[in-house]
Specification:
alpha+beta, 3-stranded antiparallel sheet, 26% strand
Length: 226
């Protein structure tokens, strides 16, 4: 765990902090810390009392639930620019999830008191944080709907199509996480995820080359009902 003088510059490069001036960024940097995490390292466990909000500078962090048998359900994959742990700002309740580095990652931890002070002083910043939390809630509900109402192949088709630009009709995609991690996000067993990929390939909607996937017909993937 280290503190560095360039933290204000790191914050200024992130859209959620763009409405803060130099003094406000400096006040946020006071007490903020950088953490480097190796792959598979745990940031914290479910039930931990968080001291503030986390900001991913680079790498990838998975927020997850697990059952007594050790099976994981990934709630969120946080990449560069994403934040998590905002609930510590408002509820004071222990974390409902476990956070683990999915790859080597650099994370900033911003202290609760400094964040709340800047939210009070800068309405634009408060609005930006609340908007981000609202988007997170919509994403969680969408993921829940996907798991409850869609078949395994529909979940995979939806997951792939979400990663392409809206205007694209075909797209070359490189998966940035393992297939088992994606399966956990979709509430599928890894073998079920692999079978769904094979089915979409047989139907001519995708071409598979390891982690590289060509989405050949995005219109059909977006409306897939198989």
């Amino acid at each position: 765990m280290t503190r560095h003088h360039h933290i204000p510059e790191m914050l200024a490069s992130q859209p959620v902090f763009s409405c803060l001036d130099g003094d406000e960024l400096a006040s946020l940097a006071q007490g903020a810390y950088e953490h480097n995490f190796d792959r598979n390292c745990f940031l914290y466990q479910k039930g931990a009392v968080l001291q503030g909000m986390h900001l991913v500078i680079n790498g990838q962090i998975k927020l997850m639930l697990s059952n007594p048998a050790g099976a994981e359900k990934i709630v969120l994959m946080a990449g560069p620019g994403d934040t998590f742990g905002e609930e510590a700002l408002f509820t004071g309740r222990p974390s409902p999830v476990t956070a683990q580095a999915n790859k080597e990652s650099l994370v900033l931890v911003l202290q609760k008191a400094a964040l709340r002070e800047n939210m009070h002083r800068n309405q634009g910043f408060a609005d930006a944080l609340m908007a981000r939390m609202g988007e997170r809630m919509c994403l969680l509900i969408e993921n829940l709907e996907t798991c409850v109402q869609r078949s395994s192949a529909q979940r995979v088709a939806h997951f792939l199509s979400q990663r392409a630009p809206e205007e694209a009709s075909c797209y070359d995609l490189e998966l940035d996480m393992s297939k088992s991690t994606i399966a956990s996000q979709l509430n599928l067993a890894p073998e079920t995820f692999s079978r769904a990929l094979s089915r979409l390939s047989r139907e001519g909607l995708i071409d598979l080359r390891g982690r590289n996937i060509t989405l050949r017909n995005l219109d059909s993937l977006r409306t897939y009902e198989g």
